[in-house]
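Thread: Newbie trying to understand structure tokens

Hi all, I'm a second-year student working on a class project, and my supervisor (Dr. K.) asked me to get a predicted structure for one chain before our next meeting. I've only ever worked with sequences, so writing a 3D structure as a token string is new to me. If someone could post the tokens and maybe explain what I'm looking at, I'd be very grateful. Here's the chain:
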Amino acid sequence: MVDFSKIVDSFKSSAIPQNMLNRGQLVLNNFLKPIKILFEQKSVPKEPWSDEQIEFLLQVLSNMDTDKDDNAARVGEREARIASKLHLKTSAGFCHGVGRSGFLTAAQPKAPGGSIMYEITNYLARNFLKNFGLPNIQKAIVCPLCTGMSLALCLGALKPDYNDKALINKKTVLFPQIDHESILKAFALMGFKAKLIKGKVFGDAVRVPIEDIKANLDENCFAVVSITSFFPPRENDNLKEISKFAKENELVHIIINAYGVQSPEWMSLIRSAIDAGRVDAIIQSTDKNFLTPIGGAVIASPSKETILRISQAYAGRASATPIVNFLISMLSLGINGYQELIKKQKDNRRLLEEKLKETAIRVNERVLDVFNPVAVALSLNNLKKEQLFSLGGALYNLRVTGPRVYNTDKNQFGTCCDHYPTPYIVMNSAIGAESKDIILAIERFEKVYKKFNQK
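---
Reply by user tm_fold:
Sure, no problem. This is what the structure looks like when written as tokens:
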């Protein structure tokens, strides 16, 4: 067994001078030190790792899995056999995945390295959320499912025991209106009924009053879903009051914090909700918050038992790739790197609003008064109906991606209410965006707007 921290001991009798060996050992130890600290502390590093350190860690752990054993006699139906070595790259070598059938976080006998990797990753997920606004959570797991599918998993895990005939009809989820297909499909997938509580317009903002949520409670309700981050004009829910309501009525309460980790304001609302009442699970997207490829979510909870129930509800063995992607982000960003990203996001949010206000003056529109730490909406009152239909396509052809255009003559879906009176465009300054993206997008929007008005 090679002890890399003492590798020079193997060359004491060689012709290489001792001072050179010591210098080399110093460099190697410096390279390995973050890995040693990670294993000891199981927390997100303060400073980012190099890509070479991350690759080394992943290669060491993946080489512990049984598919790397040249002398193994593999006779199972699932042995991490692969058609191409490219699979090793796309999975970072963890071809066995993580977990066992029916238990997401269970140790996998054929993947000791993958099991270590997953355990470390989940420690980092909890540590990271504690560092960035949720000190009152107890456990977190990285789930290889998108946000909507993770919601379905949580609801399925936390549903009533239908073997009890007294609970057989409790299949309704109170749903403050969130116009997003993935959430609606999560309810339908699990066979639950969503009891929609419609949003109402307050000035420019759309909110769902807590009184309306309370008024919709009936004997068949077992859960309530709330949100932090969504697109203007929808504002975040009153999480604190919903959590009190959930506790008083023994309702499962799941918060969808889709891209909210980047916002200290939204994280503070969740923290207060946990302290005030009942919060069972908080779901956040890995790609929107942690700059990973799409396909994962972090599920956190103030209850270890809740996370255990959720992990035991997972059907089948899971892909390791979304977990590896999250781990890579944690190590490549570090605490300090993410703090810098949040600062930059705040600066870009101010820039976005300032530039849109300047544009609004020039084109006789206005920025909508909606609380959202990430996105800004601008009215489009002076465009004709056919121009509103064409605006999104025109911006896409100018290589502007991501804006949302609402036309009062089209489907109301997206506004989270009935008959929102103002046409608008929404732009985001989400984490990872650059100031040049914001400036360029607004310049191109104004160009299209003025061209339309000349017709």
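A couple of things are worth pointing out once you decode it. The chain has a mean pLDDT of 93. The chain has three domains: 1-41, 112-336, 338-453. Feel free to ask follow-ups in this thread.
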